[in-house]
Batch of 2 targets.
Target 1
Amino acid sequence: MERRDIRNFSLNVGGEILWGFQAALIGSSTVLAVLLRDLGAGPRMIGSILAIESGGFLLPQILGNYVFASRRKLKAHLMIFHFIAILPLLWIMAGVTHFVFLRPEVFRWLLLASFAVYMISIGVVSSAWFDWFARLFRKEIRGTVMGVTWCAAAGAGAGGALLAGWTLDVYAPEDAYFALYVAAAAISVMSILMFCFVDDSAARDEPGRRRVSTAALLQDFRHSLRDRNFRSYLIGRMLAVCGFCVLPLLVVYYTSPRGGGLDKGDVVSYGSAMTVGASLAHFLIGRLGDKKGYRVGLLIASAAQMATLALLLLTSGPYSCLAAYFGAGLCGGASWISHLNMLFETCPHENRMAHITVGNLVISGAWIAAPLLAGQAAESFGVRSVFTVCLGVSAVAFLWFLRRVKDPRVNAY
């Protein structure tokens, strides 16, 4: 690595460690799910968490193509957007949490709405952030940098999840949740401050503001979707997403008598295994992907999905919960790092931000609808029935990636 690479790598790791720690303190699939369950929410509302998270993260990405049109000032605009549109929402959620137990039937909806706006704000910035990251590091080291960075972030997340579980066990709920959200908000500010020192001086040589028009954007979308392998990849990703849309329902299962009747604090603590699994997957798939291509990461993720869902159907209790969250982390880590690199490398034109956006928009239907349907089905037929259906869909996803998707690093197509 050159000196500039080392500087940016170090700052990126530091910033992501802080962000991963704060995110785990208020994890949507653990802390938020347990909080809503404490407030009387049923499987349908808890299942909607993943749909809100996915929809908020994916659908607004198209706006990022207009908001972040300047290449030379991209870093400055990204930082400003975080300070005015993302970080304040964490403080708002902390405020809502302070009053949430006064009127649970009202404030649980306010909390969920605040979370939705927070995810929408992240969605606006996400495609631009990933494009910025892709330009900071060369293709030859990008996957390794990404893997090591997210490995460290996920490791920090394990600590955050354990601290969250301990806090919920030791303190009264009205104090514990408020403290967790305040801590997360403060740490997120420190995280973004670290990214302010990233050296992207090479951007000075970039063209100025990109000319963005809806017609040109749609043309780039069409150009991307005309690629047969890219279309096959998107179909596989939608199948994989539908096959593992049950993450928030793990709280419902393991706190129920059928799953072992575990205490909520224990479930949150066991949720730290998810970040350990993600940490391991990020490191291994980042290194492996740079050498062998990223289709292998998709196959590993699909196999991990099948193993985790089979575990949920066959076991219960604390060790099962620990293993299930570890498997969920493996799935998420392997699929996400592979997904981003496949988006980077399948782009058939120069507007990579548009390519990232259209890919995520296509997948967003599955990301949003599947958790909602899973929550509804869990209320009607039980969570184990949902796990069974998802196991079959995950098997189809594995076979699709194996037979229909080519790796752009390995195959010329």
Target 2
Amino acid sequence: MSCEIIRDTKCIVVATHNEHKVKELQSIFEKIELVSLKTLGYNKEIVEDGSSFFENALIKAKTIYNEYKMAVLSDDSGLCIEALNGEPGIHSARFGGDIPQSKKNELILKMVKDKKNRDASFVCSLVLYINERRFYIVQEELKGEITKEARGSNGFGYDPIFFLPDYNKTLAELDENEKNLISHRRKASNAIFAILKLLY
């Protein structure tokens, strides 16, 4: 595939195989075509050994840029729980090992069962990597609380255990449009899209 984010074609590779993320991002990036790693047939493992969301997002962006020489949009996101000293944080995707997401959620609920402070944040660090000399980074968060039981069937990941007091719902109880208006990824994506409009 030979599209690039040049004034003519406006195409960006999203450094993920997660089609949920690509769909969410595509609703924001309007006329810019987003291409997933799945579409490109990229199956190599990317070692995310950074110590922060930003470092991991940048590692992914650089790796994919070096492979295709195309502009890359890369994020690293996770759930940070105050009572667990910010965990699972950058380890959110690998937390609990190779078990279903529902089991990961159950494990989190068990770990915070007796905690008075249930405050948590979803964090998204988003990198737009155009080339070696030009890249942009935005980090946003969505504040909430950990529920006492999983609720809702929308969304994915830790959404069913992330409660939003202002809505009296978990993220998984919001419909897609409601979630997209307030999510950590939406906030970061809006900022990156604003940068893109200035550049192109």
